[in-house]
Amino acid sequence: MASLPLRLTLEPVLPRRTPREGDSRQFRYGFNLRIPDGPIVDRQDPLLGALGAEVVRLSTNRSFAEALQSPSVDPGKSLSAAIEPPDGDGDPVVGVWDGDGTRCAGLLPWRTAGRVAAALDQGVDVELLAFGEMRTASEDRRVALDILVSLPVTVRVDHDPRVPVLRPNRPARRRVVLFADESGDVRWWDAAAESGPADVGELPVSQELRRELKKLRKAYSKLERSSDELLEGYDLMESDWQRGALAQEGIRLWRRARQELGRQFAVGYLGPGMDSPAWTPGELPGSEDESDYDEDVFS
User: Fold this and answer.
1) What domain range is 271 assigned to?
2) 3-state class of 247 per DSSP?
């Protein structure tokens, strides 16, 4: 008779040359859960539920999309759960952080979050282990992460975190963000936060676009200096009009940059009042087009 904790291991998934049927634009990499010298434990296996464990899938969204790309949350890495502020309905929210607690890759589904939050509140240890991922065929971007949520008293996974994920190198565009803000700062930013900001002249855009970006930066700087003054009446209305006009100019220049850089870079935009970058025009605040289709990248 097996004793607790039940021991599992991670078996590497061999990469496929083409995506599986039904996953026409995505590849699965990482590991399978397996009983040592025994069968694979599927994500729906009732054995997991019997041990108070489950497999959840983190899917990408705009808030956590870049953190989800970090090697610190690769399959095979141990992650940590942290209780976040409750949502608007008062339900518990639990973030999934990397081992160093520096990047939040997403939030646990609400049912799982309720159970994990209850365990953490009572001092019960909960372990999170990333073991599988889904990546896009076109950009080699991680769009989903499979995570084993378990209790160390009932489940133990034997795995050397130094074992690499079997994943072929696929071509991918570098992702940069055009940051244009009322603070007067107009720069390029590395979306993955692996390097610092770059001046508007450092990317291979046309001379015309480079000049217009610099003009936008000067205009924002001038507006920022004038904001220190106490404005009222018509002057306040004019200032608000200028802010709106500059925001629209920033979007226009971003669209131009997408056309010029689209073959080498995925270009995002982070403008006034935005808390995460837009990567397509349909993601801009107030846009009626929610499509992810990059209609103007290669036009």
Assistant:
1) 174-283
2) helix
Distance CA 139, CA 175 (A): 10
Contacts of 23-26 with C-beta under 8 Å, sequence gap 24+, read: 23/134, 25/136, 25/137, 25/138, 26/134, 26/135, 26/136, 26/137, 26/143
How far apart (Å, rounded) are the C-alpha atoms in residues 14 and 16?
6
Radius of gyration of the chain (CA): 23
- Residue 288 is assigned to a structural domain of this protein: no
With cut-offs at 50, 70 and 90, classify the pLDDT of residue 242: confident
3-state secondary structure at position 50: helix
User: pLDDT tens digit string along 1-54?
Assistant: 568 999 999 999 999 888 877 766 899 999 999 999 999 999 999 999 999 999
CA 44/CA 32 separation, integer angstroms:
13
Q: How many domains, the chain?
A: 2
CATH assignment at residue 63:
3.30.70.2330
- How far apart are the C-alpha atoms of 212 and 210, rounded to whole Å? 6
